[in-house]
Design brief:
The strands form 4 sheets. Strands 6-5-4-3-7 form a 5-stranded antiparallel β-sheet. A 3-stranded antiparallel β-sheet has the order 8-10-9, with helices on one face. A two-stranded antiparallel ribbon has the order 1-2. By secondary structure, it is an alpha+beta fold. The chain has 14 helices and 12 strands.
């Protein structure tokens, strides 16, 4: 279709529209359509005020419940279509059929919208519902007024050739719609597979995440290949872009690719998995999710650290629950030289053993670690079954030690400093003890 054909088509369309507008039946049909729209709006408002859509058909099967919700939400369209069809029948028998053409078009468009809403009611994504509904209704409208083929020819007449690939607006639109539909189906299939895999008790959490990611990536690749093949794009024609993609990966996408590969490695070697308690640098917490680019570490204070997968491969990571969740808690404390060290050790062991989270099968131990300048230093160790809340357990034991020391008369040493003042008001070589 060249420029002259487009001009001739526009002129013919303008003449046809002018002849239609000049007819008095045009205004009659237009008035009937406006009246039907007003009555439909009023009926819909009255229905919505008397019907609770949330509790509508609660005991019905799911397909019937969705159908009922769509019919209630589209009640204005149903009323409008019924009124326009009734007006069309009345005009058909009262005058020439061609004089009610606008009513036919309005009725078909209303019915098309109602059918589209019923079909898209199975889709849960609101944005996808709107996109598919508007696209399908636009195609139906062009078909109803007989302009679908001319529009398709016009969209296919403009093209850009890249190597062996011919791109037109029609191809781009088809490809976009097919990709949306294919990716939507892929999401449904991958979610179904994920639910089945997560219910399996024979697979570890890391293997479950790895399988879900591999299935999702494979389905997306298949969906893209199918969509490209459906619009007639040969995958070999895309070879011209491979060099540009390679340069882009080498220049700006190496971190993304590195994080992606690192994520696959982490899932394969099982060094970390969801639920593990880890320490990475200054960040500590439990792994709540493992994504393609990062892992999410939930701290105990409500924060979540998003750590790139590459950091877990290249940096030092402390996994508190890698092979065994049992954790050794170490408490260092000191007493003065007036205390009996054997009595202090026994008292500390009894307090640690009385801790609710201490493992009974692994008795605590306390040793005299050092004769320091300020007093004796001790090291108390005991095991707990889970590293969660280790600082709280340590604090509880230290508080119990303090209470026991106060009760038993055991003193904790503190530093003493000597201050020598030469000259001035004090005698020479006077010693003043300052405690802190």
């Amino acid at each position: 279709m060249d420029l002259n054909d487009v001009i001739a088509y526009l002129q013919a369309t303008a003449q046809s529209a002018g002849a239609e507008i000049s007819s008095p039946f045009f205004y009659l049909q237009f008035g009937l359509i406006l009246t039907a729209a007003g009555i439909a709006y009023a009926a819909n408002t009255a229905l919505q005020s008397h019907v609770d859509t949330t509790s509508l058909a609660m005991r019905w099967p799911l397909p019937l419940r969705r159908l009922a919700h769509v019919m209630v939400e589209s009640f204005s369209t149903v009323v409008f279509a019924a009124l326009v069809i009734a007006a069309r029948i009345a005009m058909y028998h009262a005058t020439w059929p061609s004089r009610s053409y606008m009513l036919v078009v309005a009725a078909k468009l209303a019915l098309a919208w109602l059918i589209i809403r019923l079909v898209t009611s199975v889709i849960r994504n609101a944005f996808l519902v709107k996109l598919i509904s508007l696209s399908a209704w636009l195609i139906a409208a062009l078909s109803v007024i007989g302009q679908l083929d001319p529009v398709i020819d016009a969209l296919d007449s403009v093209s850009i050739v890249l190597g062996g690939l011919r791109l037109t607006p029609l191809v781009v639109i088809k490809l976009g719609l097919l990709l949306i539909a294919a990716l939507w189906l892929t999401n449904i299939a991958s979610n179904f597979a994920e639910s089945r895999i997560n219910r399996s008790t024979d697979l570890t959490p890391s293997i479950q995440v790895l399988l879900v990611k591999m299935i999702r990536i494979g389905l997306i690749a298949v969906a893209i290949a199918v969509a490209l093949g459906a619009v007639g794009i040969n995958l070999s024609a895309l070879a011209v872009f491979s060099g540009a993609v390679g340069v882009g990966i080498g220049i700006g996408l190496q971190k993304i690719v590195a994080n992606f590969i690192s994520g696959i490695i982490l899932l394969a070697d099982k060094s970390v998995k969801p639920g593990d308690l880890v320490t990475i640098g200054d960040s500590s917490g439990r792994i709540s999710a493992m994504k393609t680019r990062y892992i999410s570490v939930a701290a105990g204070d409500g924060r979540e650290f998003l750590i790139p997968n590459e950091d877990l491969v290249t940096q030092k990571v402390t996994n508190w629950t890698y092979t065994d969740k049992n954790t050794l808690v170490k408490v260092n404390f000191g007493t003065n030289y007036e205390s009996d060290p054997r009595r202090v050790c026994k008292l500390a062991v009894d307090i640690a053993a009385a801790s609710p989270r201490a493992i009974k099968s692994k008795p605590p131990g306390c040793i005299l670690a050092e004769f320091a300048e300020a007093g004796m230093k001790f090291s108390l160790t005991f095991w707990i079954a889970d590293p969660d809340g280790m600082d709280n357990v340590k604090s509880d034991v230290m508080l119990s030690l303090w209470e026991a020391f106060k009760r038993e008369g055991i003193k904790v040493p503190y530093p003493v400093r000597e201050l020598r003042v030469r000259g001035g008001a004090l005698p020479v070589d006077t010693t003043v003890e300052v405690s802190n």
